[in-house]
Specification:
This protein has about 300 residues and is an alpha+beta fold. The chain contains seven helices and 17 strands. The strands form two sheets. Strands 8, 9, 10, 11, 12, 13, 14, 15 and 16 form a nine-stranded mixed β-sheet that branches. Strands 1, 2, 3, 4, 5, 6, 7 and 17 form an eight-stranded antiparallel β-sheet that branches. The radius of gyration is 19 Å and the shape is globular. Bound molecules: pyridoxal-5'-phosphate (PLP).
Length: about 300
């Protein structure tokens, strides 16, 4: 993180001052990317903060750790409680981004990481507003392919996976685009560098399967649930690249990005070149849900205060 976030960091069950939360340079994760993490948002509304789908994020952290046999010594409930306590300890009242991270510590240069290898878990939180500019973003199809299940599984939210996202992001920014869309190893659309992708044709919504190297996004699941409850059909299926040029609408979903329309791909306008009606209605419903405006989805929110 570029800047100091909250005054305290939760570190292996204790609150540690930001400046004291340090690790040795021998830390295995620094050398081999042996860490799994989460990105969670807490939305400031009405003097409170609502942490969005906290339990589901901590469950995914456990699943990611399990793929690599990293021992995670804290239960989902302990991690969720620690997150709430951290925001309280830091006296946070505005919208925040929360980053839990479990990493392998002092394990030398041994690549045989097992459940007995030393691991640590931290949770940090910092104020956070919008990730992308509002209104819509331009995207390109990256020349980098998305990592896949035959190499480093994209379903596990592992630190090392993000080198792939970084290459794609660097390429897109160098070429003047806001974001990159990656194809899977078979050439079908996978996801963006840090978001899942949805495409709209004739008011029907489509998104790639997990088997197309997409992360099991929590915002993806949220958008699908909301869209279905609004009467849209949402279908998971392979999406060929050219369909990006034929779509009426495209939108991305992610904790940081939230729901954001893609208004051009490789210079081709998507639909009218502006946010389309389906994306808009799902985005607006999402914004209402995350700030506590929808009674039936209050169980997705954990109030801090
Ligand atoms: C590669 C990738 N895909 C998709 C997502 C969206 O996942 P979520 O909605 O759970 O934040 C993210 C963000 O975490 C991501 O990094």
């Amino acid at each position: 993180m570029k800047e100091k976030g909250g005054e305290y960091i939760w570190f292996d069950g204790k609150f540690v001052k930001w400046e004291d939360a340090k690790v040795p340079v021998y830390t295995h994760a620094m050398h081999y990317g042996t860490a799994v993490f989460e990105g969670i948002r807490g939305y400031g509304a009405g003097g409170n903060i609502f942490v969005f789908r906290l339990k589901e994020h901590m469950e995914r952290l456990h699943r990611s750790a399990g793929v690599y046999s990293f021992s995670l010594k804290h239960t989902v409930k302990e991690l969720a409680d620690a997150t709430v306590e951290l925001l309280q300890k830091n006296k946070m009242k505005e919208s925040v981004y929360i980053r839990p991270l479990t990493f392998v510590g002092m394990h030398g240069i041994d690549l045989n990481v097992t459940t007995n290898s030393p691991t640590h878990t931290i949770i940090i939180a910092f104020p956070f507003a919008k990730y992308f500019k509002e209104g819509g973003i331009s995207a390109c199809v990256s020349s980098w392919r998305r990592i896949n299940d035959q190499t480093t599984p994209p379903l596990a939210k592992a630190a090392g996976n993000y080198l792939n996202s970084i290459l794609a992001t660097q390429e897109s920014r160098r070429n003047g685009y806001d974001e990159s869309i990656m194809l899977d190893i078979a050439g079908n659309v996978s996801e963006a560098s840090g978001e899942n992708l949805f495409l709209v044709r004739n008011k029907k919504i489509y998104t790639p399967f997990f088997a197309d190297s997409a992360l099991e996004g929590i915002t993806r699941d949220t958008a699908m649930t909301i869209a279905r409850s609004m009467g849209y059909t949402v279908t998971e299926r392979p999406i060929p690249r050219a369909e990006l040029y034929m779509a009426d609408e495209i939108f991305l979903t992610g904790t940081a990005a939230e729901i954001i329309p893609v208004t051009s791909v490789d210079g081709h306008a998507v639909g009218t070149g502006k946010e389309g009606p389906v994306s808009k209605s799902v985005r607006q419903a999402y914004e209402k849900v995350v700030t506590g405006g929808v009674k039936e989805h209050m169980d997705w929110l954990t109030p801090v205060w």
